[in-house]
Amino acid sequence: MILRDVIVPGHGSGDLHVVDGRVQAFDQRPPSDTQRIVMPQLVEAHCHLDKCHTLHRLADVGGDLTSAIAAQLEDKVNWTEADIWARAGRGISELVEAGCGLARSHVDWGNTSAPPLAWSVLEDLCSDRSDEIDLQLAALVNIAALEDPDCAMSIARRIAETGGALGTFLLDHAEPRQSLINMFDAASRFGIALDFHVDEGLMPGLHGVELIADVALEHGFDGPILCGHACALMNLRRDDFDRVSEKLALAGIFVATLPTTNLYLQGRTEGTPDRRGLTRVRELTDAGVQVVVGSDNVADAFCPLGQHDPMAALNLAVLTGHLDPPFDRWLPLITTNAARALGQKPPALVGTSIDTLILSDARNPAELVSGRCGPPRRVHTLSEAAQ
C-alpha cells in the first residue's frame, strides 16, 4: 500500500510505502495542492483527569492559583468512584478524539503513603482504555509528606506498579531540598519518572526550577524529569536565565508550558492583566532545553475553559508566545519531545506501525495548528488512510 501525496512533518512531502502495517519507506517528491499530513499521534504531557469537568458544580470560580486550589478542594466531597470514572472517562474520550496516543494525568495524592480513591479509579481506567490510549499517572504528593524518606519510598513503590511518575507541587516552600532528595532517591530505586509542578507564579523570589536542576545534577538521576509551569523564569535577568537554563539542559530536564491555565490564573490585577503566564519557551529552546506543551486543566476551578487537545494548546502557545513559522519546529512540543518527556522513545518513521500515525486534511503545518481542518484522524486501517 502506498499513501501518496502526504506531508510528514520533519521529513518533507512524498509517498509513504506501507507493508504489513508498517512504514517501509518514504519517497520524497515535490509538494502539491492535494497533499495531506501524516504524523505521529499527539502526546498530552500534562493534564488533570481527576479534576476535569467539575466546573458546573463550583459556586466560586475566578481568581489566582490560591483561590483555585481552595475552590477545587471544596469539590472533593463529590469525588465518588462513579463521579471520577464518568468525568475522567469523558476526558480520556476527548484526548482520543483529539488524536492522542499517549498522555499523562496528574492525580492529587495528599499527605499519606496510601493512594487516594482517584488513583485507584484512574488505574482501572488506564487498563480499561488501554486499547485506545497509553495513559500514565503522576502522583501529585504534598511536598511536606516527602520529607519522610520512608513515605517517599512507599509511594514510589506503589507508583512503580503501574509505571507512573512521582510528583509534587513546589512554589514558595521553605527548605524543600530534603524532600527533593528523597524523591530522587525513591525514583531512582524504583525506576520511575519525576514530574514537578514548580514555580507556578510570577511573584519574585521563586527558584524551584533551579533547585530541582541542582539536585538532579548532584544525584546523577538518569530517568525522565518534567518540570511543569516554570512561570517564574519570566522574572529572571538574562545572566540568571542563562545560568538556570544551562543547568536544565545539562540535567536533561524537560519543561512544560501550560498556556490555558497559566494565562487564566497568572498576572491577575484589578483590571486587564499585562503579564503572561507562559514560561520562556523560545529562550529555553534556543538554550537547548527540551520544551513541551500541555493542556493542563479543563473545565475546573483552575481553568473554566480548556480542551483535552494538545493541538489546541499549541495553537494558544503560538499566539501568546510568538512562536513563529515554520511550525515544523514546534510540532515536536506535542509529539516527539513530549513522548521523550514521558520516558518513551519516539520510533523512527521507517518501521513504525501505521496504527501509531494520524492523518489530517491540512495541507501544511500552519493549517494543522490552526485547527481549521478539524482534529486529525487515527489511521486505524490502510483503507481509511487511502480514501
Name of the CATH class of the largest domain? Alpha Beta
Counted by DSSP, the helix tally is 13
Looking at the overall shape, the CATH architecture of the largest domain is Alpha-Beta Barrel
- Find the CATH topology of the largest domain: TIM Barrel
Q: Radius of gyration in whole Å, from Cα?
A: 21 Å
> How far apart are the first and last residues' alpha carbons, in Å?
12 Å
Estimate the mean pLDDT confidence: 94
Give the biggest sheet: 8 strands, parallel
Structural category is: alpha/beta
The overall strand count is 14
Integer tally of domains: 2
Q: Strand-and-helix sequence, N→C? A: EEEEEHHEHEHEHEHEHEHHEHHEHEH
Shape: globular
The H-level CATH homologous superfamily of the largest domain, spelled out, is: Metal-dependent hydrolases
Q: Give, in spatial order, the strands making up the sheet with the most strands.
A: 5-6-7-8-9-10-11-12
